[in-house]
Amino acid sequence: MATQQVPDKILIERFCTGSDRDALGTLFLRYMELVYGVCLKYLGQPEAAQDAVMDIYEHLNRKLPGHEVDNFSGWLYMVSKNHCLQLLRKKSNLLTVSLDDPVMQNGREAHQEDDLFDFNVPEDIADQLHHCIEQLPEKQQVCIRMFYFEKRSYADICTITELSMDHVRSNIQNGRRNLKKCIQTKQRLGSGTDL
Q1: Number of domains the chain is built from
Q2: Which of 99, 110, 160, 167 is nearest to 137 (CA)?
């Protein structure tokens, strides 16, 4: 089988087991345009985006072996976005995120049990929000970040993650509930206390 036809999962396995150290390079080349596009979107400068792409590749060398990745393109998208957000956070100590979804993307009113909320995050608890997002299951992290931070539609998220509309909606709703609980718990315990 030609290298370009080898499924992502097999290349990940080869890289993580050490049987093929070049597998990561092959895998990364498949999605380098995606990574560059994400970096350029967030950082706004081609040179900064190129530097970020190289940083992300190095990051994958360390991080990938410790993760179970079912959907590499979605996971890589999240890693790229997180890297850019961290770079931007260094430049700005204020992050405001609105976790409010009054009308679902399909046009129907949101259900009461979705436990919707407004959440404006000032500087002093921005780190708590990021910590709580990192505690979410991987698919919830991806969907939450795409929906709230990138303002992507459910349809866009379905395309990128290869999840069904129901799964995207469920991950966003469950992720939002989990974030609210996490932030409330951290606020009760104090910002210096780990969950």
Answers
A1: 2
A2: 167
